[in-house]
Amino acid sequence: MIRSAILVTSAALAVSVSAAVLHGQTPQKTTNSAVYTTAQAERGKAVFGEKCSACHDPARFTGAPFFEVFDGKALKEVWDIASGTMPEDNPGSLKPQEYGDIIAYFLHLNEFATGEAELPGNAGAMANIKVEKLKK
Ligand code: HEC
């Protein structure tokens, strides 16, 4: 009996550990991992100009103001606010990938390196990337 209780407990642990990985609760990448493309950031800039700039200056998401809020957190924190509550006058009205593109634009504003692959517009991918300051 005791033995099977231990087995059950460790099986439950294994499940919760893999769920954590699946949900990206331990981010495997950072904003320094070249997680978006230049073309994507350009698209994001255009969407931001159209849908967000009536209320937000890009400076809000650049440098100190950005890191004060999001440093050390997963990009999912930005994603949840953006895709869940913005634009404030019409929340969730953009396509998921448009929110992803805007976040790529934020990374560009903060001068992070670009790579070959786009930043996917979904919560799982965002949870897997931790915001950290630019490594020069
Ligand atoms: C109608 C005005 C309005 C529009 C349009 C708007 N926002 Fe916002 N946004 C706000 C307000 C108000 C807040 C909360 C107060 C603040 O943090 O400035 C906010 C906060 C945020 C935050 C949290 C900032 C932080 O540092 O905590 C993010 C991220 C954000 N908005 C992204 C966006 C994006 C992306 C868009 C375009 C898709 C957008 N917003 C469009 C009004 C707006």
Instruction: List the ligand species.
Output: heme C
Cα shape: globular
CATH topological fold name: Cytochrome Bc1 Complex, Chain D, domain 2
Written as H for each helix and E for each strand, in order along the chain, the element string is: HEHHHHHE
Fraction of residues in H or I helices: 40-55%
Q: Based on DSSP secondary structure assignment, what is the total number of beta strands?
A: 2
- Please work out how many helical segments DSSP would assign: 6
CATH hierarchy class name: Mainly Alpha
Q: What gap, in angstroms, lies between the N and C termini?
A: 57 Å
CATH architecture: Orthogonal Bundle
If you had to describe this structure to a student in words, what would you say it looks like?
This protein is mainly α and 136 residues long. It has a single domain, classed as Cytochrome Bc1 Complex, Chain D, domain 2. It has six helices and two strands; from the N terminus they run H-E-H-H-H-H-H-E. A two-stranded parallel ribbon has the order 1-2. The longest helix is centred in the first third of the chain and has 21 residues, at 2-22. The relative contact order is 0.23. Residues 16-20 have low confidence and may be disordered. The structure holds heme C. Residues 51-52, 54-56, 69, 78, 81-82, 86-89, 94, 102 line the site of heme C.
